Amino acid sequence: MTDGAELWRRMGLSMRAEFRLMPEAAGGTLFESDGVIATILPAVPDRSLPNSVLYRDAGGLERVLDRLAAAYRDAGVRAWTVWVPRHDGAARSLLRDAGHRLDAEPAAMAADLATVEPPRAGDPEPDPQPRLEDLGQLNDRAYGTGDQLGKVIGRGPGDPRHLYVARRGAEAAAALVTADHDGDCSVWWVATAPEVRGRGLASGLMRRALADGRERGNDVSTLQATRMGQPIYEALGYRAFGVCEMWERREPA
């Protein structure tokens, strides 16, 4: 697998491509200037994860930070976050001085698709006609966010080449989505219904999704993992290559 700097580059490209899509589903806007892109989603004004900022260098971030704050304020968004690689001390200091606080520290993880475990015989068969609302509802149930993530993910039929939904009977039990960019089969929105956790449903979907990603010509898979999710991804063949700090700015309600 490629080195850490190259993995940061490829994961960053995948994140930028994915975040560009969020405003379309949620009726928001995309801010773009000086290498900075930001999703501005008034439909979820108090959720900083969907209202995210990605940047190329700390200098560009510094030049637009006041404009960013004004854009979020004018849109009625009260919470937004900037994704910062832990090794970027300049951006961290800039955001701390501007009133942001460290809110989360997901691990940046990658897997070599040539070596990940293939699907097992007992892994769940994904729904051949998946729907986005199943993905949204599962994420909201898994993370206790009401209907907020469903607003970001949207509704309607999903692409079965990238949206994986496992069912137990008629009910959606686990789901995830993948996206291909520059050889990276990146993984997003992994969620399992609380009542069926620990049964390997999401892991089984992941094995199928990564095998499909390899068949499409990807050589690596990246994701950002919570502390709870990191051991699960490690068992699937992912390894941490850094930490993504999320520096949140939250205004009073």
Describe it for me?
By secondary structure, the chain is an alpha+beta fold. It has two domains: about 5-105 and about 245-250, Aminopeptidase; about 115-220, Gcn5-related N-acetyltransferase (GNAT) (Aminopeptidase, 3-Layer(aba) Sandwich). The chain is about 35% helix and about 30% strand. The chain contains seven helices and eleven strands. It has helices at about 5-25, 60-75, 90-95, 130-145, 150-155, 200-215, 230-235, and strands spanning about 30-35, 35-40, 50-55, 80-85, 100-105, 105-110, 165-170, 170-180, 185-190, 220-225, 240-250. Strands 1, 2, 3, 4, 5, 6, 10 and 11 form an eight-stranded mixed sheet that branches. A hairpin with a 2-residue loop joins strand 1 (about 30-35) and strand 2. The longest helix is centred in the first third of the chain and has 23 residues, at about 5-25. It is globular. The N and C termini lie far apart (about 45 Å).
What's the short story on this structure?
This protein is an alpha+beta fold. It has helices at 4-26, 58-75, 89-97, 132-143, 148-153, 201-215, 230-235, and strands at 29-33, 36-40, 52-54, 79-85, 101-104, 107-112, 163-168, 171-181, 184-192, 220-225, 239-250. The protein has seven helices and eleven strands.
List keywords for this structure.
single chain; 253 residues; alpha+beta; Aminopeptidase; 3-stranded antiparallel β-sheet; 35% helix
Structural class of the secondary structure composition?
A: alpha+beta
| Residues in helix, % | 25-40%
Alpha carbon gyration radius: 18 Å
| Count of DSSP-assigned helices | 7
Distance between the termini: 45 Å
The CATH class of the largest domain turns out to be Alpha Beta
Major sheet size, sense and barrel closure: 8 strands, mixed
Low-pLDDT runs = none
SSE string? HEEEHEHEEHHEEEHEHE
Residue share in β-strands: 25-35%
The number of strands is 11
Would you give the CATH topology of the largest domain? Aminopeptidase
